[in-house]
Amino acid sequence: MLLGAYTSAIGAGLSCPDWPTCYGTWVPFLHSGIVASSSYSTLQIFAEWAHRGLAMTAGFIILGTTIGAWLAYPNNRLVTWSATGALVLLPTQVLLGGLTVTENLQPFVVTTHLGVATLILLCLLTTFLTGWLSSREKMQYEQVP
């Protein structure tokens, strides 16, 4: 979310003009002519490209977190369903990320993209905190003679 905010703040939201690729390629920096001919700076292109890459990595981490929640806490509905909630919201977030570019940063789309990111963060925080507190309670219970 911070990298997305930074990307927006430096005016780089459209520095990769297509989606899901960036200038028709997955790694625009391997093509020196792309960066050289762009009206955006190398930093702006890198920020947008890195935001997309980090978001993809976060998506895989969310998938792993959901699987882990169901394996480690199968009887804790708050842990499992908050993790599942984050995973269910993920395709919407990806779609909104694409629409942010293809719809030229329409305020409603950008705001909704941030809102869904906030909901995903809330789900993941709930997963973590509930799981952590549940583990602490279990450890305390096991230590009592």
From TrEMBL:
Keywords: Cell membrane, Disulfide bond, Heme biosynthesis, Iron, Membrane, Metal-binding, Oxidoreductase, Transmembrane, Transmembrane helix. InterPro entries: COX15/CtaA_fam (IPR003780), COX15/CtaA_HemeA_synthase (IPR050450). The keyword Ligase does not apply. The chain crosses the membrane at residues 49-71, 78-96, 108-133. It is an enzyme of class 1 (oxidoreductase). Pathway: Porphyrin-containing compound metabolism. One of its GO terms (biological process) is heme A biosynthetic process. This is Heme A synthase. The keyword Zinc-finger does not apply. It is a multi-pass membrane protein. Its EC number is 1.3.-.-. The lineage of its organism: Archaea, Methanobacteriati, Methanobacteriota, Stenosarchaea group, Halobacteria. It comes from Halobacterium hubeiense. It is found in: Membrane. One of its GO terms (molecular function) is oxidoreductase activity. It comes from the Archaea. One of its GO terms (cellular component) is membrane.
